[in-house]
Design a protein that fits this description.
Blueprint lengths: L7 E11 L2 E7 L13 E4 L2 E9 L2 E7 H6 L10 E6 L18 E11 L2 E7 L13 E4 L2 E9 L2 E6 L1 H6 L10 E6 L1 H15 L1
Antiparallel strand pairs: 1-2, 1-6, 2-5, 3-4, 3-6, 4-5, 7-8, 7-12, 8-11, 9-10, 9-12, 10-11
C-alpha cells in the first residue's frame, strides 16, 4: 500500500524484454534504499513492483505481461524519468490517499494549460472509470495522489501546484502522453458492497 506522495524522481536504468514479461532496472540517487530489502514493494509511476535485487542506489524488478499491457511501463525507455515511492509503513502518516499500486487503466493528456505558477491538465479516461471519479475526490496519476477539480463526460481536470511540478514527473507530461490511473480504492469497495447488498 502507498500514499501517492512521490518520494523521489528516478530513471529507467535498463530494460530487458522476454516472452510474457520484462525485467527493469531503476535508478535514483534521491531515494533512501537503506531500509529496502529484497521482496519489498516500490511503486514505479504508480505500479507496485517487488524488488528482486538492490544495488546501491538502484533496484531490479520483474514486470509481468499483464502489467506491461495495462500500464505505461511497457512504453518506458532507458533514461526516462519515473516517480518512486516506497511502501507505506504502519507508523507513517498518510499525506495523500490510500493507493494500492494496481493500475486500473491508462488515461491520456488532452490539454495542458498554465495557470499562474500552477499547471492544469485535462485527462481523458475510459468510460468504465468515470463512475469512480468525483469532483474534489482523489485519483492517482502516475502514482501521484491528486485532487480532481472537475469531471465532464470522460475527461477530468487536475491543478498541479509548483511543489508537485518540481518533485514529480507530472509537469513533464505533454498533450498525447499516456498516464497510469488508479481510482480511489474506497469507491471501488463501496460499489462492491452495494452490489452485494442489492443481491441479498
Amino acid at each position: 500500500m502507498f500514499t501517492g506522495i512521490t518520494q523521489a524522481i528516478g530513471q529507467v536504468k535498463n530494460k530487458t524484454l522476454y516472452d510474457k514479461g520484462a525485467v527493469f532496472g531503476f535508478l535514483s540517487s534521491k531515494l533512501d534504499f537503506s531500509s529496502v530489502v529484497i521482496g519489498d514493494s516500490i511503486a514505479v509511476n504508480g505500479v507496485c513492483l517487488t524488488a528482486i535485487k538492490i544495488d546501491g542506489d538502484s533496484f531490479t524488478a520483474d514486470v509481468s505481461q499483464e502489467t506491461l499491457d495495462c500500464s505505461i511501463l511497457g512504453a518506458l525507455s532507458v533514461g526516462d524519468n519515473i516517480n518512486l515511492e516506497k511502501a507505506l509503513r504502519l507508523n507513517q502518516g498518510i499525506d495523500g490517499h490510500l493507493v494500492s499500486g494496481h493500475v486500473d487503466a491508462q488515461g491520456e493528456v488532452v490539454d495542458k494549460i498554465k495557470e499562474g505558477e500552477s499547471m492544469c491538465f485535462k485527462i481523458s479516461v475510459p468510460q468504465s472509470l468515470v463512475k469512480y471519479i468525483a469532483r474534489k475526490g482523489s485519483i492517482a496519476v502516475n502514482g501521484v495522489s491528486l485532487t480532481v477539480n472537475s469531471i465532464n463526460s470522460a475527461v477530468f481536470d487536475i491543478n498541479i501546484v509548483p511543489h508537485t511540478l518540481i518533485t514529480t514527473t507530472i509537469g513533464q507530461l505533454n498533450i498525447g502522453d499516456k498516464v497510469n490511473l488508479e481510482v480511489d480504492i474506497i469507491a471501488r469497495h463501496l460499489e462492491q458492497l452495494m452490489s452485494n447488498k442489492n443481491e441479498d
